[in-house]
């Protein structure tokens, strides 16, 4: 078992694999004009085990395609979709967000929480636009500076880890330059990180250790990495979060 396999095992039983929340998913849906009356085609890109996909399928009349490059997450999503009674609305499949197996203008809504960074926000919004119908909506959560001025250590950290990190103003300008009109923006509040993501992860550490006793040094290193991410958030949460961007495809 590789370190990457261990990382998957740490996260696969979690409700979500990144910060966010059901209320925030539903708020973004409202900003995108999604309502229960229309039948919509939706793609959730980098869906993980389905935090957003399952919420959307439960609340809206939709045909939802959930895609992630990890087969284990897709299999887990399928099990959860059955358990939550929405399997008939969700097609879950493996695939690469850099090379999506979709048709042009296939979707009313593209959704991606905490995942577009894997190919970069700029590349993602350009590459995915063609899959939206005219007037289609895109909903993205993305690492975002909350302030113009920040401690050097923090700026330095994220410039190395994800050089595309920027303020909401810059992200919105990128959307506008690439054929989208902003419909709404909000930063994820603290509980989306602490209560919904970090706390359940910390609660998983003991059972994770017990699950892989023969891999204790790798497990400890992985837990240490997660602890550092949590400490980084706690220390600097005034300066960064994920921003949720809701935009409409316009003619360009
Ligand atoms: N959207 C989920 C959520 O909010 O719980 C998962 C977020 S997790 C931080 C990022 C997800 O992106 C992971 O499930 C990962 O497997 C997926 N991912 C990473 N690179 C990918 C790629 N190139 N194509 C498709 N999915 C990818």
Automatic annotation (TrEMBL):
Pathway: Lipid metabolism; Phospholipid metabolism. Keywords: Methyltransferase, Transferase. GO terms for molecular function: phosphoethanolamine N-methyltransferase activity. Residues 42-136 form the Methyltransferase domain. PANTHER family: PHOSPHOETHANOLAMINE METHYLTRANSFERASE (PTHR44307), PHOSPHOETHANOLAMINE METHYLTRANSFERASE ISOFORM X1 (PTHR44307:SF2). GO terms for biological process: methylation. The keyword Isomerase does not apply. This is Methyltransferase domain-containing protein. It comes from the Bacteria. InterPro entries: Methyltransf_25, SAM-dependent_MTases_sf. The keyword Secreted does not apply. Pfam families: Methyltransf_25. It catalyses: phosphoethanolamine + S-adenosyl-L-methionine = N-methylethanolamine phosphate + S-adenosyl-L-homocysteine + H(+). Signal peptide: none annotated. It comes from Thalassotalea agarivorans (Thalassomonas agarivorans).
